[in-house]
Amino acid sequence: MAQRVPAAAATTTGGGGGGSSTTISLTGSGTNYSKMEGPIDPSFKTKRQPVGTFQGIKVWGPVDPPGQLGIWGTEVCVDFDICIADGACIEACPVNVYEWLETPGHPASEKKPFMIREKDCIFCMACENVCPPQCVKIFQKG
Ligand code: F3S
After folding, report:
1. To test ligand 1's pocket by mutation, which of 90, 121, 131, 141 has the most ligand atoms within 8 angstroms of CB?
2. Per-domain residue ranges of the chain
3. Cα separations (Å) of 46 from 49, 106, 130?
4. Cβ-defined contacts of 14-18 (< 8 Å, 24+)
5. In this structure, CATH architecture of domain 7-138
6. Residue of the nearest CA to atom 4 in ligand 1?
7. pLDDT tens, 56-92?
8. What is the pLDDT of residues 123-141, one digit of tens each?
9. Closest ligand 1 atom to 118 CA
10. Which residues surround ligand 1 with Cβ inside 6 Å?
């Protein structure tokens, strides 16, 4: 079930620090709709800032819900603005890292593969390899 928090919770002060304690909202009045083509930028971590978390999972901005959701994850990363909810990643994962997350109002798809069990990833790369728009990027620890 989608977590409901005030839309204002998605905004940050932009000065860095404390961003990871912000709870990201999936709802809001964001009109910055940004349907994007894949693949995910493999170097996004050097170009984007973490703007908060959703159920403990890191979210990288810019985020302007519901139209722009950014990239989610630390090791198992999915660009939610590219994802079309094909579902191949969810079917492919042998350890059930993902579950569907409803994202009503997003222009690319109204549900996304939420990496809620990211810590269980065994880095088999199956999800990254089967994603049609190539919106998944796996970062192996160490
Ligand atoms: Fe599953 Fe992808 Fe990791 S398929 S095990 S989340 S590399």
Report:
1. 121
2. 7-138
3. 8, 25, 25
4. 16/49
5. 2-Layer Sandwich (3.30)
6. 93
7. 999 999 999 999 999 999 999 999 999 999 999 999 9
8. 999 999 999 999 999 999 7
9. 6
10. 76, 92-95, 97, 121-127, 138
